[in-house]
Amino acid sequence: MDDDDDNHTSPLLPSPPPNSIEEPSSSASQSQIYENAVGEDDTRRRPETSYRINITVFGGVSRRINDDVLSCLIVLVAFWFFASMFMIFGLYGTMNLQLGPNCSRMLQVNPFFVQTIRAEEIDDSRNGLMLYGFYDIPPLDTEVTWSETHNMLIPSNFHKDWAHFLNKGSEMNISYSVKSSSSIPLSLIIAEGRENLVEWMEDPSYPNTTLSWNIIQGNGIIHQKIQKSYMYYIAVGNLNSMEVEVQLNFTIKGIMYNTTNAFYKCSLSRRLCSYNLFIYGTNYALVTSPPIPQSLPYFDWYVKFAYGPRLITYITGSGMMTVIILLALRICGMLQIFTEEARGMQARDFISDRTPLILHKDDDLLSWGSSYDSISDEEEEEESLDIRRSVDDAQRTCVKCSDAEKNCFFLPCGHGVVCFSCGIRTKEEGGTCPICQREIKKVRKIFTV
Question: Does a structural domain hold residue 439?
Answer without folding.
Answer: no
